[in-house]
Amino acid sequence: MRDLIFKIKENRKIAKDVYEMLLLGDTSDITRPGQFINIKLDGFYLRRPISVCDWSEDEIKIIYKVVGEGTEYMSGLKEGDELQVLTALGNGYSIDELKLSLEKNGHMRTVLAGGGVGVPPLYGLAKKLLEAGVRPDVVLGFNGAEDVFYKKEFEDLGLKVEISTMDGSMGKKGVVTDVMRAEDNSSLYDYVFTCGPEPMLKAVYDLVPEGQFSFEARMACGFGACMGCSCKTKYGNKRICKDGPVLMREEIIW
Amino acid sequence: MVKPDISTELSGIRLSNPVIPASGTFGFGKEFAELYDINILGSISVKGTTREPRFGNPQPRIAECPMGLINSVGLQNPGIDEVVKKELPELSEIYHKPVIANISGFSVDEYVECAEAVDKVENVGIIEVNVSCPNVHAGGMAFGTSAENIAKVTKAVKAVAKKPVYIKLSPNVTDITEMAKAAESEGADGLSLINTLMGMRIDVMRRRPVIANKMGGFSGPAILPVAVRMVYQVSKAVKIPVIGMGGVSSARDVIEMMMAGASAVQVGAANLTDPWACKKIIEELPGECEKLHIERLSDIIGCVE
Ligand SMILES: Cc1cc2nc3c(=O)[nH]c(=O)nc-3n(C[C@H](O)[C@H](O)[C@H](O)COP(=O)(O)OP(=O)(O)OC[C@H]3O[C@@H](n4cnc5c(N)ncnc54)[C@H](O)[C@@H]3O)c2cc1C
Ligand SMILES: Cc1cc2nc3c(=O)[nH]c(=O)nc-3n(C[C@H](O)[C@H](O)[C@H](O)COP(=O)(O)O)c2cc1C
Ligand code: FES
């Protein structure tokens, strides 16, 4: 973990209240998709945790939604502005775990299920999965058509993408699990990588038998020092920031 | 000018400098040892320990504030046995100086048991008795807000502990000097102050408290003036040494605390927003001393009348 200065290359609106920001700097601490960074903002005491959406050698892409004062401040930042960022935090998704399951079970129908600003980390994951020879389906859930982002980006990776919206203004009306369920109510998928609001994670948990779930928590430090973000799991207490944010399905306690 | 002497002393224990990470903001040191050589620290106050393992309070436990935060961690810890058998010995492998064992309890008996257990651990230099954690309804608060109960806990812990006992005081009282004197009169070797101030935030969109437990402990730079005031009042009222804390984030703040009367200084919330905070403060201290014409840091302890 390091506290590094990144320079904003681009900060643009991509959906209602949602912005994509490109940050230039040293990304070598990032090892896995699903990790996050913790951003210091002028005038705010705590940093803001935001998932790494995608990264290259010298560039991090994040996508954030304006939900409060901190993200509002971020949306006003301009190209050339600098941000102090703790990288890279959390465990991230494990492709090795999926491979172990594949070895055991043969073929597995794999899906990436994202809800709202839970979508971003799944994009970097999709790229890494493709590099590893895994071709997942993608299901993205939003409130309405105006909230939808990254449909095309996932399609450009050559993946099948389905959208669900709560108000039915795009794709299937309903939630992501409505797209992931067969007529007989069974799951269309054997393995899921997911990130989104907790009620969505719970619905996905109830449907798909195996997978990796990324959680959110209010954080003070983001690197395991304060116990602010703890949760109970079947394998004992875990810190979402350090032992998570990704938990394996079998360890989750609701 | 010769290099300023930034060492200090607590109950006969020499500290290479007065900077000590505060309990609950540094875990048992592991996360920080990956970032810098923690042996530069004057000492370390480890996470507060109770007799039984505790998960702590429900989520959310953290609320941001202007220049600070509220925490309602609720003393999450692995319990005294695990701390004595695993956490403290493991810390001794990465940190080679005496540490401060922070203990908490819901009854006098529990304090005594925890004190007895940590007293036997080799790398424990000081026992810090937290009578002030505002998060736990059942006990902590009640002890810290009554001089009578502070006296009881101090007396009971002193009866079993061979190592110096520091009572960590709550600021959530009408007259903190009364609490300080109660601890001193029962033989406390020193005092730590302040713990967090009781606070609350409301999510105005949802019309409900931000923190699941409604209230929590407020700390960070915002509380520095309150802490300086209390350290000043207490150190004038007692003869035993005081460890000052509350909002300390810079070498200047350390010096201010010491001028108010602190023999050493703990740094809490600052570790969370900047993991290298203690390291930076220690590195800045000599330069800051030079600027202020301080040759020996311990000379300024309580210099303000
Ligand atoms: C591991 C992780 C990854 C995340 N990734 C993304 C992402 O990729 N894109 C995105 O838009 N959002 C993401 N979030 C949520 C994001 O951190 C919050 O939306 C953001 O902190 C809100 O800040 P604010 O000042 O605008 O809101 P305010 O409500 O004013 O913030 C007040 C305090 O609450 C905290 N807070 C508020 N909402 C959340 C939340 N949902 N989760 C955690 N802390 C919160 C803030 O950090 C701050 O300390 C992630 C959260 C976590 C824990
Ligand atoms: C997340 C967090 C956890 C804490 N846990 C403890 C604890 O276990 N025992 C204790 O005596 N004090 C605890 N404290 C209080 C601090 O040790 C310190 O007294 C207080 O935060 C004031 O210092 P600061 O303003 O530098 O944070 C905790 C504080 C924070 C922020
Ligand atoms: S936020 Fe501090 S331990 Fe997770």
Task: Describe the secondary-structure layout.
The complex is a heterodimer of chains A (254) and B (305).
Chain A: E1 2-15, E2 18-24, E3 36-40, E4 48-51, E5 54-56, E6 59-65, H1 69-75, E7 82-89, H2 95-105, E8 110-115, H3 120-131, E9 137-142, H4 151-156, E10 161-165, E11 172-173, H5 176-179, E12 191-195, H6 198-207, E13 211-214, E14 230-233, E15 236-239, E16 246-248
Parallel strand pairs in A: 8-9, 8-12, 9-10, 10-11, 12-13
Antiparallel strand pairs in A: 1-2, 1-7, 2-6, 3-4, 3-7, 5-6, 13-16, 14-15
Chain B: E1 8-10, E2 13-15, E3 19-21, H1 30-33, E4 62-65, E5 68-71, H2 80-94, E6 99-103, H3 108-119, E7 124-130, H4 140-144, H5 147-160, E8 165-168, H6 176-185, E9 190-193, E10 197-200, E11 202-203, E12 208-209, E13 215-219, H7 224-237, E14 242-245, H8 251-260, E15 264-267, H9 270-273, H10 277-291
Parallel strand pairs in B: 3-15, 6-7, 7-8, 8-9, 9-14, 14-15
Antiparallel strand pairs in B: 1-2, 4-5, 5-13, 10-13, 11-12
Helix pairs in contact in B: 3-5, 5-6, 6-7, 7-8, 8-10
Bound molecules: flavin-adenine dinucleotide, flavin mononucleotide (FMN) and FE2/S2 (inorganic) cluster.
Residues 219-222, 224-229, 239, 241-242 of chain A line the site of FE2/S2 (inorganic) cluster (FES).
Task: Explain the overall architecture.
The complex is a heterodimer of chains A (254) and B (305). Chain A has 6 helices and 16 strands. Chain A has 254 residues and is an alpha/beta fold. Chain B has a 7-stranded parallel β-sheet, covered by helices on one side. Chain B is built from 10 helices and 15 strands. The mean pLDDT of chain B is 95. Chain B has one domain: TIM Barrel (Alpha-Beta Barrel). Chains A and B meet through strand 14 of A and strand 4, strand 5 and helix 9 of B. Bound molecules: flavin-adenine dinucleotide, flavin mononucleotide and FE2/S2 (inorganic) cluster. Flavin-adenine dinucleotide binds next to strand 4, strand 6 and helix 1 of chain A. The site of FE2/S2 (inorganic) cluster has 13 residues of chain A, from loops.
